[in-house]
Amino acid sequence: MAARLIAGFVLAATFAATALADDVDAKRIEELWKKGSEWQVGEAEHIKKVGDAKLALIAAGEPALKHALTRLVTTDGLEIRCLDEVLLGLKEKSIGPLIERVGDKDVNVRRNVGRILGSFNAKKDDKDEVGIAEADIRRISAALLVQNAKEDDPSAKYWQLIGPARWKDEKALPLIIELSKSANERVRVRSVALLGNSRDHKDALARFVELLNDDRYFVRDAAADELKKSGQPGAQTCQDKAVELNRKDKLDARDARLLRLLMTIIGANNVGQPAWELAGSLGKHEDANVRGDSYTLAANLALQDPKQAETSAFPEVCKAYLEMMREIEINPYAKACLEAALERVK
Q1: CA of residue 180 relative to chain centroid, distance
Q2: Is position 98 within any domain?
Q3: Which of 15, 150, 202, 255 is the most buried (most CB within 10 A)?
Q4: Sign, CA torsion 234/237/243/245
């Protein structure tokens, strides 16, 4: 009987000691989390303490993971930095638990989970200690895309696509294109960067051209930048659209604006003789702004390295063309563009 009582006391004491240790660990994790969520600027000593707290959380492993998962709901910018660094630092330990929260009922959790999972990188080689296995990347991408297809929050949809877009998951492209049609202008402009990961795909290029007609100038500018980065494929897509517009009997203000923007992209990436022919044709356009920009386009094409295209309008040829147009151009804006173009090709 006494032996049983002693055994019972020992067992109870063991449970109590374990609970006390867990409580101490939890308090220590909370202290580290609080420090790791501070602004990491200022004196060197403070910066180091904040960084060390995050490293200590990563080293703690499971207890830190457990605490971090309770903070996925946060919207505090400084705590989000701590959340990201710790969960990414825990690598494989955090992937499964995060995937389980991809479809969480709280939208802030879905946003944070999408951002964190999308920030993982695949291992470059066996010596890479930062990246994760390619199989894990595929597993994450699949989970994010399944949730994205039924996601109703634009911001969460964006964060769920950053990873699949970077990893060039072909199943992500239709979802990114759909996201770029959001009524939210901030989501549209951010989706342009996601599309940039597939800028060599014809569907992405076609969508960029459509976005050149967006109501917001910053969306148009972002799409134009991506088309310029795409090189010849983007320039050819713009060339085809410009030719289509030039065939119209009359352009409305929106189409004229689009045509002028297309010329800046074509001029940045010479597509050869067709581009020169387009510039000459637009020099006869009824819209003076279009004519003016066509003279700029002609100069841009003339000054490009002729080895970079099948053919090129050499400066001498362009100069002769512009001097001929100088005799008939009467619009002040177009004449100013023409004179500037002539000055460049002399």
Answers
A1: 12
A2: no
A3: 255
A4: negative
Mean pLDDT of all residues belonging to the chain: 88
Could you report the per-residue pLDDT of 125-151, keeping only the tens digit for each?
A: 877 778 899 999 999 999 999 999 999
Distance, CA of 57 to CA of 39 (rounded, Å): 17
Listed as ranges, residues in the chain with pLDDT below 50 are 2-3, 5-22, 24, 308-311, 313
Q: Is residue 338 part of a domain?
A: yes
Q: Do 112 and 81 form a contact (C-beta atoms < 8 A)?
A: no
Tokens of 109: 């959790």
Q: Give the Cβ contact number of residue 119 at 10 Å.
A: 15
**Exposed/middle/buried for 286, CB within 10 Å: 0-12, 13-18, 19+?**
exposed
Q: What is the DSSP annotation of 38-57?
A: S---SSHHHHHHHHHHHHHH
CA distance 20 to 167: 45
Inside any domain, residue 341: yes
Say which amino acid occupies 102.
V
Closest by alpha carbon to 82, among 8, 121, 29?
A: 29
Q: How many domains does the structure of the chain reveal?
A: 1
Which DSSP letter does residue 251 get?
-
User: What's the domain range around 335?
Assistant: 263-346
Domain membership of residue 132 (yes or no) is no
